[in-house]
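FORM 7B: Structural annotation worksheet

SECTION A. Query
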Amino acid sequence: MTGKTCNVAVIGAGIVGVSTALWLAREGHTVTLIDKAGPGEATSYGNAGLLACSGTMPVPGPGLLGKAPRMALDPREPLYIRWRHLPALVPWLMKYLRHATADAAKTRADAILPLIGDSLADHQALAAGTEAEKYVVPCDYLYGYATRKAFDADRFTWDIRTEQGFEFSVMDRTALRAYDPIYGEAIRCAARIRRHGRISDPGAYVKALAKAAERLGVKLIHEEVEAIERSGGRVTGVRLAGETLSVDTAVVAAGAWSKSLTETLGIAVPLHPESGFHIELWEPSQMPRSPLMFAPGKFVITPMDGRIRLAGMVGYGGFDAPPPEAPYRMFMRHLKAALPGLTWRETTRWMGHRPAVSDSLPLIGEVPGVAGAYTGFGHDHVGLTAGPKTGRLLAQMISGARPNIDVAPFAPDRFTR
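SECTION B. Predicted structure
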């Protein structure tokens, strides 16, 4: 327990918000966790369930600028744009694509490594002594390619992983079959990285963590936060359902829905909702040994409790667009080639929204000029991976302790108006 105690409102009950609330409660703070939908009901429910310690490379890597137009027009590519949404998308997209260079990708990879490199241990520490422990599963992580040539073409990414200390072994088709016979001819080369992890049921996991937080005294409120109140340059409360809840500290951890609240605090974050998709195959006839990133389709195949989840791809259509059919058709097309002979009882599907910041780095820290206002969002494709460490960092900051990693790359003041 820290010597400094605060009355904290955590806005958003995904993995970042719940992790923040739980670590704050363990530090002895008074905490209210607020989310209209409830814990683990949005992006933290539908992700790939992967603790991607090695997932330091951003989506806008070198070469994307040249490939993006073709990808957007080709229905066989894992990128989907709702064209009527294009005018709203373009201003953000131009900022985003400026980072599609080798130097920018390397900078981001090095910045994010301390946040996600120990993700398995971070989740184990967060869940220790709670009902959530059972969902954290140590495992290998595979990157599957159609050919060895395709793996070699990804050398830039693997060189960075090597520099960052990740050890991997490359398997040909025969070695992959010996490791896991579930995969078909669509994967003829795979890289295996050890010491990763997976969450066997992401939605249930976040709910179990929230229950653990409630047992420590965290109050859960199912409402939408309308505004963060402040006076004299510091937080005084949060307004919800027409009433003000008095607090001295507020953490914005609402993922893709964080932009409007932070704008009122003077942060003009270039944040855009990026759609992600999944299908689940319930009661499958076989189960993969480890999660695998299927490179041709840009999605992850993850074994989960009672089902296999295929999750990934990228879409831009805003919050209100209905799910496009193309991603689900693509899942099924690749599924037949990647997992031949697999049968299952039922297929379910989902679409959600990732919080994509133009520089592919989250905002973690205190808002300049507003004492007691903090941010913890913008984790792009690694929200589940980074959630526990982000929560612990925020708890350290709020408690007046020095964070145990360099948080300068994540400072909210890089977007101060």
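SECTION C. Observations
The chain has two domains: 7-44+204-268+360-415, 56-100+137-197+271-357. The mean pLDDT is 97.

SECTION D. Sign-off
Analyst initials: ____
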